[in-house]
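User: Study the shape:
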Amino acid sequence: MTQMVTAPPKDMAVREGEVAAVRAGGAAQALVGSALAAGELGLTRGELARAVQLGIVRAGPPTAGGAARFARAELARVRDAASGPPDALRRQVETVAGAQAAAEVLGVGPSRFTRLARCGHLTPVGYRINRYRAVVWLYLVAELREFADRQARMLRGTAPAEDRELLAARGDLRPRTWRGRHVGLLLRRTADPWARAAVLACVLPEDELRAAVPDPAERIVLAALAPPPPYGHPQVPAAAAVAEGLLRAGPPDEVHWYRTSLEFALTGARAQSKSTGERGPT
């Protein structure tokens, strides 16, 4: 049962960063809002959101309005786990936006970086839609540096034949590699069979989803459990329409993979519902 800690002075407004208390396993567990949690970890709120996305920081039960909250025990765990310099955690979530900035981290030109990313050698961690409604991909600085150390040969010389073929065909794997990363991170954050099925369902185009899940009741369940848009998803309708295209699988083989994975996940979810009656159609 959830209990809220009484605000100290009555004339003070309740802030997001104030502490709440919830019952977890019979014991009270202190929760704080994202602003306070970010400050205690030495991060901005955007960096904290990225840390949650990457599974570095685990969010606690949200507020009734859906705002994120974090257990003080979890913040202590993250601080204890961070080794090295004081800004070690910030370095884990640091990103750069666009080919120019990412190329500078690698020490190559923007055209070479774009080729590496389009051919799937580097995976974006997020995106922005700029004022021209163009997609600007974000990359983790730590991953770029690791790639430069591990794949130094790819930073110079001629592109492999398969890369040249992909570029000649105007191929671009960035949306697909980002989707794969995004789905993988979401799946690692839940063990609930219906929630996992919902993650896979939200990647499929509508016609493929209806074909894979013909039962309207099941589609309602999946829609209710669908994860929110990823961090950085625009709110402006015109930009959001562009970003929506990044959320859906495109190539036929990619669509087939997610559809097959969804059908497998639904088999397990349906079996759970029949045995426990906890969630989903029976």
